[in-house]
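Re: the 527-residue chain
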Amino acid sequence: MEVLDLNATSLQAQAEHEKLLLDAEIARRARSMHVPTAIDDVKRALRHLGHPVTLFGERAFDRRQRLRNVLAAKAVEGGESELSALGFRSLDDRSSAPESELDPSKRAEVFYTPAGKDLQQVRGKLAELSFQRAAARLARYKRRRDEPAEAHRRCAELYGELATLGIRGSQIVDSRPISCCKFSPILGSGAAAAELETTRVLTGSWTGLLKVWDAAKLQPTVVCRGHTERVVGCDWHPEAAFSTALSSDAELYPSPRLLASASADATVKLWDARIHTAKVVGERPVAGAKEEEDADAMDIEGPAPKTKGVFERSAACLGTFTGHKARLSRVAFHTMGRLLGTTSFDHTWRLWDVETRKELQLQDGHLKPVYGIAFHPDGSLVATTDLYGITLLWDLRSGKQIHKCIGHVKRVLCVDFSPEGWKMATAGDDHAVKIWDLRERRCLYTIPAHANLVTGVRYCSQSGEALMSCSFDGKVKVWSTRDYSCLQTLTGHEGKVMGGDVSHSERHVASVGFDRTLKIWARDVLA
């Protein structure tokens, strides 16, 4: 039988067809290839494989994708043994799986630390509370589902107001940058217009001071002194409402005036804004027309004074929580009010009892310093983020880690749960905000939010229809959670925005920055 050689055109077509098949197989392998998320690990792998650590203009995401393609190509070419030695494998490649995964008898043993009696009692109360709150939340959203027209109307009204946000007031807070801020809760729904009259804003600064501000007048009402290093996190007790006059009652718990602060001095302090002492901290000039009146009020004989004493009310420190071995990152009250959560650079997060000031739980599990922390609105879960780019979900009722959110290519610095209960937002050093579906345990959407590190992310606490993010790019942005479009971009800070929060009525936004200012954003009536 005579066999004819293919001509040049056919040989070229055959080669192109084989290349297409090879590229398709590499792309298929790349989609299921395990690659590290940490930047240092990606560079180390590329260097070991003999490829450039970075290319001109290449971002972290592009570098990670290049590593994925390199590993997939090597796997297709038959380098499975080398990839296995390096610890890489594809999801559909069981032959290169570690022996511990194929042989159950050689898997690492899972161990649990016995819980103390106090922690067991708290977990029982948490389980009961979370079941009740979950039932109430589901009933509330079922009613909302049954009335779609009303839900759409309220959402459109909210978006209309958020789209017209503008600067309402700005005040210099301290002599050094301001690291965090938080709106106080309010009792009842209340009118948005009157909300600022009964709301306080808590700020923490690099001087170690914690200040409570009147949100309407932007005047400090209480100062908390005690930290020896910069304040890095602050939070209000869930019942810290200011709808009535300050009470003189000093009962500790339940207290409507508790607040907590975390510092780089590795301590957490608990404060009561109801208990305060006043002292003169300086002097200010007295206006001419008021000199005589002030002199009479002060019962001073002789000429009227040219200056007037400036008084400062200092809050009482109820206790100091110590135990962390390195600087703290964030602090947050549990929705129950009795518990306090902290994260630290010692790679752990801890749970404290506010009543007894004792440590209930010390939890490790993160490979790098732990940074962000947030509690689920039902009180059942807690999310912690770390500087490795991973977010871990924990069940507070059992103490187990139930999920690991992997997707960020750099540090994850902030996290927040939606009031709907099934969505969670994370953000960090990769300039993006990721939305996670807790039911399907996957990333639902990625918002390319900012041009620099994202320092804060916060859902509207009542409806969950909007999301606030702030960044080192100097901007605060408000996003729709329906289509993740940007509703408004707030600019006004001279430099990095260090933190932000959304008010209870969802109509006001507070932000603090490296420029030492606190800014309140509200609806622009002229818009």
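Residues 90-104, 188-193, 243-255, 286-305 have pLDDT under 50 and may be disordered.
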